[in-house]
From TrEMBL:
Residues 190-206 have a biased composition (Basic and acidic residues). Residues 1-24, 133-206 are annotated as: Disordered. InterPro entries: Med31_sf, Mediator_Med31. The lineage of its organism: Eukaryota, Viridiplantae, Streptophyta, Embryophyta, Tracheophyta. PANTHER family: MEDIATOR OF RNA POLYMERASE II TRANSCRIPTION SUBUNIT 31. This is Mediator of RNA polymerase II transcription subunit 31. GO terms for cellular component: mediator complex. Component of the Mediator complex, a coactivator involved in the regulated transcription of nearly all RNA polymerase II-dependent genes. Mediator functions as a bridge to convey information from gene-specific regulatory proteins to the basal RNA polymerase II transcription machinery. Mediator is recruited to promoters by direct interactions with regulatory proteins and serves as a scaffold for the assembly of a functional preinitiation complex with RNA polymerase II and the general transcription factors. One of its GO terms (biological process) is regulation of DNA-templated transcription. Gene3D superfamilies: Mediator of RNA polymerase II, submodule Med31 (Soh1) (1.10.10.1340). Belongs to the Mediator complex subunit 31 family. It comes from the Eukaryota. One of its GO terms (molecular function) is transcription coregulator activity. Component of the Mediator complex.
Length: 206
């Protein structure tokens, strides 16, 4: 009979590995595509709600499968992801509270609504951090007022020389109305007859 001490000293032999381990006939291409498709389906909150209602999250093997799929977050695999929200939900599915909450329709609607708001404002929020902020425009210097010309002292103008008053032959001053309209009997009158007679004489002599 072998003592317990001898049995502890003897190493336990592991079962031999099979000579021909399983190998995908297409070098894992089909498996790669299936896992990529399933991971990207997790970007849809309605699909996660379907899995929760059908009690997939109560299966320990399925929980382990979700943990295994986290390798898609590595740089060499993440470049194949077209819907990056799936990686966010995959990370949340590692939490039991989130898995239980997604069984309720209200939680599904809340997740879907928040996802919509993220898509709606993603571009504007991202541009705020990517685009450089424009430099503040320099304030325009105040425009100086036009220079005030030096005040030139105004030379006082001499009052216009007053015209001598119109006087009559008798020495009395005429008013403007009398000068313009009333005929003055004191002014000498030119004799038109004598003037015409002188012109005729000049023509005959000439």
């Amino acid at each position: 009979m072998v003592s317990s001490k001898e049995s502890m000293d003897c190493p336990v032999e592991s079962p031999p590995l099979p000579n021909n381990p399983y190998k995908d006939p297409d070098d894992g291409r089909q498996r790669f595509l299936l896992e990529l498709e399933f991971v990207q389906c997790l970007a849809n909150p309605t699909y996660i709600h379907y899995l929760a209602q059908n009690r997939y999250f109560e299966d320990e093997a399925f929980i382990g499968y979700l943990k295994y799929l986290q390798y898609w977050q590595r740089p060499e695999y993440i470049k194949f992801i077209m819907y990056p929200h799936c990686l966010f939900f995959l990370e949340l599915l590692q939490n039991a509270n989130f898995r239980n909450a997604m069984a309720h329709p209200g939680s599904k609607e809340l997740a879907h609504r928040q996802q919509y708001f993220f898509w709606k404002n993603y571009r504007n929020n991202r541009l705020k951090h990517i685009l450089p902020r424009p430099l503040p425009e320099p304030a325009a210097p105040p425009v100086p007022p036009p220079p005030v010309p030096a005040s030139v002292p105004a030379h006082p103008q001499a009052p216009p020389a007053s015209l001598p008053p119109m006087t009559t032959a008798g020495g009395s001053t005429l008013s403007p109305m009398q000068f313009m309209g009333a005929p003055s009997s004191n002014l000498p009158k030119a004799d038109m007859r004598n003037t015409m007679g002188d012109r005729r004489k000049r023509k005959k002599e000439g």
